[in-house]
Amino acid sequence: MSTLPEWIAHPALRPTWERVATRLEQAGLVPEGSVRVRLASREERQAAGDLLGRTITREAVSVDLAALDRRLHERSGVGGLHAVLVRLGIGLEDRPAARAAKTESRQRPLSIAAAAIDAPWVPDWVAGLRRSGLLTNRDNAESIARNAALVLDDLTRRERRSQSRVELGARLLGDAHALDRDRLLHQVVIRGLAAAAGVPVPMGGRSREALWARFGVDPDLLSRTCLLWGLRLASDSPVAARLDAAAEAGDPVHVTEWDLRRTPRLIPAPDTRILVCENPRVIEGLAENGVAGWAAVCTSGQPNLVVDKVLDHLARSDVELRYHGDFDWPGVAIANRAVERYGVIPWRMSVDDYTRAVRAEGLALGEAVVEPIWDLELGAAMRSRDRVVHEESVLSELVDALANEP
């Protein structure tokens, strides 16, 4: 391999060659255009003059890449500009081609997703994925896009039937955990479900599960439960028998999505009166005191999907539903939702009940105010006192009131 001549390989030319290489990369490795090169010393000016074949006296010079390429072809003995830079050990990249390849790589998973499903909501889904960058620079992006499209096509085209995400993942993808919440596929599918439903992408865990449920998919059949006490059903089923046995023994009992699948509808026994409470301690208090004539459903804080389904069943029955919860802003939000969605009647949750129970040493309510829709005076009193009253602190009064009610 021949040695490059001094007028090409002079050490003082290194900054010049690096600037020329950068411009060549920007031009897609085509020697065209020009680049301005600063020459910091007399030695650099002399070397640049030898390279370009002219005298340079200023501290900067404009290098025409096409002219330099012709000169090197004629005199270098190794070829044009590209060949000389390679011989000098300067790596070159076709930057426009690299950008195009990167753009194509980013676009390919989105194109796969867009082509896989023929539905009016798909463009919104794909546009959201593009904005989110979820599939950008991921080695498995194309596989994720294909799997997401497969799941979404199944959920939006098939007749809806109840199934768990475990069942869905195993049936369609051969992986029972493919749609777990910590998987990227879960996030991509959620965005598709939101687009299909015409709703914003849910941010919270509960709202995501509600969106899955809208398409007949539950997280699993056992992990979410609803705590009951004293509820008897007007039906003949294994679940009804288990609830009846628990009620006879005075024991609290949990029901799951599995139970609800086996019981098409929860129809309470005639003349059932039901208290819906927020805290499990209330269920304990009722069980410990053996309060007769009542059943209870506990939301255990913010209701999960199983609790929602139980309350929905009961709300469609001819049964009295009373509600009691915490006097704090989250508790008011839960009560508001229960009033609006299930028609529950707030019980012992008036402004008078609050003012009798509130204590100066109680916890502060905080600033996230939620107005109680059933009693605006209660909201004003809570803001004025700025103190929480937890349901457990009035448990004895609740138990006595229920026990003594005809």
Describe this structure in words.
The protein has 406 residues and is α/β, with parallel strands linked by helices. Helices cover 51% and strands 10% of the residues. The protein contains 19 helices and ten strands. The strands form three sheets. The chain has a six-stranded mixed beta sheet with strand order 6-5-8-7-9-10, with helices on both faces. A two-stranded antiparallel sheet has the order 1-2. Pfam families: DUF2399, DUF3323. This is TIGR02679 family protein.
Structural class: alpha/beta
Major sheet, described briefly? 6 strands, mixed
Major β-sheet strand ordering: 6-5-8-7-9-10
Counted beta strands: 10
Distance between the termini: 108 Å
Shape category: elongated
Q: What's the SSE pattern?
A: HHEHEHHHHHEHHHEEHEHEHEHEHEHHH
Q: Calculate the mean pLDDT score and round it.
A: 91
Runs in which pLDDT lies below 50 for 5 or more consecutive residues are: none
The multimeric state of the shown protein is single chain
Query: Rg from C-alpha positions?
Result: 36 Å
Helix coverage percent: 40-55%
Count of helical stretches: 19
The proportion of strand residues reads 5-15%
